[in-house]
Amino acid sequence: MPDHTRPPGKRVTIYDVALEADVSPSTVSRAFSRPSRVNSETAERIRQVAERLGYRTNPLARALTTSRTQMIALVIADITNPVYAEIVRGAQEAATDGEYTTVLIDAQESDRLERAAVERTMSTVDGIVLASSRMSDSAIRMVAKQRPVVVLNRALADVPCVVTDNPRGVRRAAEHLGELGHDHITYVAGPQASWPNGVRWRSLLEAGMELEIKVRQIGPFSPTMAGGERAAQELCARPATAVLAFNDQMAIGIIRGLSRMGVNVPGDVSVVGFDNILAADIVTPGLTTVAAPLYAEGSAATRHLLTMIGGAPGHTGPPMVLPVRLVVRDSTAARNPRPGRARPPWVRQRPVPGPAAHLP
Amino acid sequence: MPDHTRPPGKRVTIYDVALEADVSPSTVSRAFSRPSRVNSETAERIRQVAERLGYRTNPLARALTTSRTQMIALVIADITNPVYAEIVRGAQEAATDGEYTTVLIDAQESDRLERAAVERTMSTVDGIVLASSRMSDSAIRMVAKQRPVVVLNRALADVPCVVTDNPRGVRRAAEHLGELGHDHITYVAGPQASWPNGVRWRSLLEAGMELEIKVRQIGPFSPTMAGGERAAQELCARPATAVLAFNDQMAIGIIRGLSRMGVNVPGDVSVVGFDNILAADIVTPGLTTVAAPLYAEGSAATRHLLTMIGGAPGHTGPPMVLPVRLVVRDSTAARNPRPGRARPPWVRQRPVPGPAAHLP
DNA sequence: CAATACATGGCAACCCATTGCCACCGCCGT
DNA sequence: ACGGCGGTGGCAATGGGTTGCCATGTATTG
User: Fold this and answer.
1) What is the dotted CATH code of the domain comprising A14-57?
2) Cβ contacts of A123 on chain B, cutoff 8 Å
3) B133-191: per-residue pLDDT in tens?
4) Partner B, chain A 105-134, Cβ-Cβ below 8 Å
5) Which residues have CB under 8 Å from B328's CB, separation 6+?
6) What is the widest separation between alpha-carbon atoms in chain B?
7) Is it true that A67-164+295-322 and A166-291 share their CATH fold?
8) Nearest 5°: phi and psi at B204?
9) How does the average pLDDT of chain B come out, rounded?
């Protein structure tokens, strides 16, 4: 029997296996990549020899000829944002199901970093999921030209997209606030490079129109707690009784900022967030928010990407829209519960400029 | 002038560039990988042609000969846990500085998944950072034999490690609770596969010994809010006035669970967590916790890995220890502030079994 | 029994870049 | 004028699999 011990440090290749199993390298290759193409007994023998020698097929070498690495990239805007955790989980599950490995890339909310990372990774992966990309439309199309791409949380012609039903979410939030007696909603904007940010504002404009609620926008602010606290300061200068924040982190920041300044939520101001992150449930007061099916987003986007890689035409129809729901907690309440108070007590003396128009 | 338009879908290779620039492929290769080895004018010409043709060196092909992919893997136990966000940031920064790409792998707290993922990825990366690995020591050593590995949040002979000063953190927490009059601390354990979990408990045993504070352990529980809420129920059966939780998420879960049962934190029970996640600051009451330099952990581990990849011997001395600090917030308070109450009012009638001994 | 079809396995080209080694050139020193 | 030398650039092998095509050998069919 030939020696079992290979010189250490040396990779075991199909050639080594071929030698031991007394077949040609191509047969060894086929035994793994197209088992039906080789006699089952031979295949079994090869598999055993391979096992004994500790052979592992080299994915890089394989990729060189097949140009399939069995890896997909998942680009997220900010790993610090808990929203993405669930999305990642969903994507990972779908990828694993399809025998794919996910490489996660954190763009740190930076257009530049995102492009650089995508650039570097592109040639190494079979496809890309861009979750909340901060890149420009044209940059995304550029990427999509070279690799299968699915875009998450953003709609873009000619590129397959998965989005959540932002208009409906905003509408539900506005209805909810309206029912509580609020006739004016302030939208606290997040990053301008964020697609949902624009959509949410426009949806709020529409909803305001239909529901006869006035709306205005302040910001943009960083989509973080710190950003929310800064927004709170600005809110003091231009008071509001109902606030819709770009996301939960900002909403939480707003609540903290307001309470630090003696403003009560929901007594004086109602606050609604977006995303329903875990923290929304643990803050005091619990945050009313628009919940999205995070896990489903990740998994739907990834599954679609996988079919594209498998050769399906990236059906460039309308984006796939996932449903949302409003989770009502304690950060929203009826407006001005204290009778006789036209305005919350913390309104500064400076008169509020005439009611904000429905901006274009 | 030859045609500028390449057949679409076809990758541009050094051969294409060589043809256009009228040099041999090897010269093109050298123009990029060892510019000093080729005439600067030639190199410039080649670079321009390459630019015009849109040539990008194929990292896979390069890796095949150099066996360097310029990628490292960062394996984390649970992407849902916000602790890792900062670690990832630190690691990513260090990697980017060294011209490396990080591929992030989420093990979902599963030994099995972690092994599988590492297995799949190993041959594709130049090195691995295992952050809070759930694998067995032997499995880790196995991996370390094949690729440079740095282990984070775990000490392991023969493998380079980066850990935080758990003993000191526990000691500080115990001192803090002792100063508040607590003479008994209950440790709420996290995953048994977690190395810090064991260390924290043992450190608490030691600290208890020295500070003359009794200690006991309950658990293990899942290191999540849900796990903490379950722990809270068990805490009701076996009351305590001071609790040290494995991490912040459990601590928050414990606080919620307790308050749901009418127990006041910190009035009746003081709770201390570990990690100082963002949420620790936003819950009510604010969570007293042991803070670790997360970002530094990730970056230190990665930098060390990079030097190993660069050829340095993975100095297998003692682990690198990073300092911690105690962040005191509002979840800890003096024991039994209400005079005349030997025990908090919520103690069930069933007598508490004799004070837990200092277990082995 | 001849003719054809199918199941297996080998040969060799190919994927793309890297690199050791050699060849050529112009220039120097003697 | 000739040997030697540094600077450039090309040839060809290499890394580890994959795959089109052909050559067997066996099984099926008329």
Assistant:
1) 1.10.260.40
2) 56, 58-60
3) 999 999 999 999 999 999 999 999 999 999 999 999 999 999 999 999 999 999 999 99
4) 105-106, 108, 117, 120-121, 123-124
5) B176, B288
6) 98
7) yes
8) -70, -40
9) 89
